[in-house]
Amino acid sequence: MTRAPGRPHPPARSLGFWGAVAIGVGGMVGGGIFAVLGLSVELTGGGAPLAFGVAGVVALVTAASYARLSVAFPSQGGTVTFIDRAFGRGLAAGSLNVLLWLAYVVMLSLYAYAFGSYGATLAGAPGSGAWRHGLLSVAIVALTALNAAGSAAVGRAETAIVGVKVALLLVFVGAGALRVEPARLAPDTWAGPGALVAGGMLIFLAYEGFELIANTAHDVRRPSRTLPAAYFAAVGFVLVLYVAVAAVTVGNLALPAIAGARDYALAEAARPFLGQAGFTLIAVAALLSTASAINATLYGAARFSYIIAKEGELPEALEHKVWGRPIEGLLLTAAATLAVGNVFDLSGIATMGSAGFLLIFAAVNGAAVKLAPRTGGSRWLPALGVAACLGALAALLLETGRRAPGHLAVLPAMVGLAVAIEAGYRRWSPHRKART
Fold first, then answer.
1. CA 129 to chain centre
2. Does residue 12 lie in a domain region?
3. Which terminus of the chain, N or C, has less C-beta within 10 A?
4. What is the DSSP string of 134-171?
5. Higher-confidence position of 430 and 203
6. pTM above 0.70?
7. What is the torsion angle, in degrees rounded to the nearest 10, for the CA atoms of residue 4, residue 5, residue 7 and residue 12?
């Protein structure tokens, strides 16, 4: 069939099921499992695998909402598009989008913190604040420079690194499963129900990356079939992987030893069955994985700030591109990450990130409820997702209040900052007024 002159060709859809799954798995199996595994196990005890399963179920329910919305509203904007479609471009929606950018900054800080912790351990200075802060700062600056240069080699390396880190985790699980001591996983070693849920929610950041599939919707072949299958396959695989990793960690390493090696627990858990070589191998894998996660998230967060600036919810300067890339958004994201990574401790960073994403995902589930007539989906499942996210958030905050009351101020501070940025920008920016 001959196309009429001047009529644009439809975009090529080059991404299949396995490509979409790889993007989701790569987004999830990043720095989170290396960064917060020890902290989560410290909170949940021998019940850590169950806690990871609870977090995975919340992610699966939310993935169902993302699948419906991605098929109905395909866009590179992903979460931003869904929130704006459901709630308009008012103060609430704009604040949620800014909050999502802040949550990305927190996630980057967590990855950088883990990079610094594992790097300090390999350098023979475990627990050294100076080494950790120095290495996390170098990682952020170096990977920001790579993103600014737009190195094609780094982009191609991402796929290979995803394969390597998943393969190493599977080796860890396969070898460690033969040495698990069942008594360390017995119910009498579990924390209470509230602590189990809260511990799972601390690691929720490690599930967050499935939302990256939404940004590929324009490139996916047969999206109505491929996208839902990719979401569930990616989250389901990672759920099983994380539960297995938690079981092997707790089954091979005493809880006091995990607490003592909180910042590099996964590497320490490899020592009993793989020796010093296994410890070093997992630590190197953590460095590769967290560096990869920082690089990919910087790339995504810079473009995310560009998208919400185009929506008129962040300053116009973030729309500018240098060498075809949103450099202003990249530099702002990197500067904020440096500040958060060097000021907050690991538990504070994890609480901030998980709480922020639970709130955002509750909003996305709410968007799926509101847009159900347009997506063709039911309302009960996304409504369950809203309840699950808010219930998980409540458990996280209650347990945080019991263990570290000072961290309770983190979520209100993030929400307040997001609202203040959006409200101030609406009040004083002619760019925003012109688009309202």
1. 24
2. no
3. N
4. HHHHHHHHHHHHHHHHT-HHHHHHHHHHHHHHHHHHHH
5. 203
6. yes
7. 90
3-state secondary structure of 76: coil
Contact 39, 262 (CB under 8 A): yes
397-414 burial string, b = 16+ CB within 10 Å, else e?
bebbeeeeeebeebbeeb
3-state helix, strand, coil in the chain (%, to 5): 85, 0, 15
pLDDT attached to residue 53: 94
Rg of the Cα trace of the chain?
A: 21
Q: Hey, is 198 helix, strand or coil? A: helix
CA 126 to chain centre: 25
For residue 145, give Cα distances in angstroms to 71, 154, 201.
35, 12, 33
Residue 4 domain flag = no
**pLDDT, tens digit, for every residue of 391-429?**
999 988 888 888 888 888 888 988 999 999 888 877 776
Rounded Cα gap, residues 19 and 112, in angstroms: 27
Sort residue 88 into left (φ over 0), alpha (ψ -120 to 50) or beta. Answer: left
d(CA 201, CA 167): 25
Cα separation, 213 vs 180, in Å, equals 35
| End-to-end Cα distance, the chain | 42
Structure token pair of residue 270:
């490899």
* Residue 11 domain-assigned (yes or no): no
Angstrom distances, CA of residue 230 to CA of 27, 57, 223, 377: 13, 16, 10, 18
- The per-residue b/e assignment along 298-334, b for 16 or more CB within 10 angstroms, e otherwise, is bbbbbbbbbbbbbbbbbbbebbeeeeebbbbbbebbb
CA distances from 87 to 231, 358, 363, 374 (A): 24, 18, 10, 14
Looking at the domain assignment, is residue 8 inside a domain? Answer: no
Question: Average pLDDT of 46-70?
Answer: 95
CATH number for the domain harbouring residue 276? 1.20.1740.10
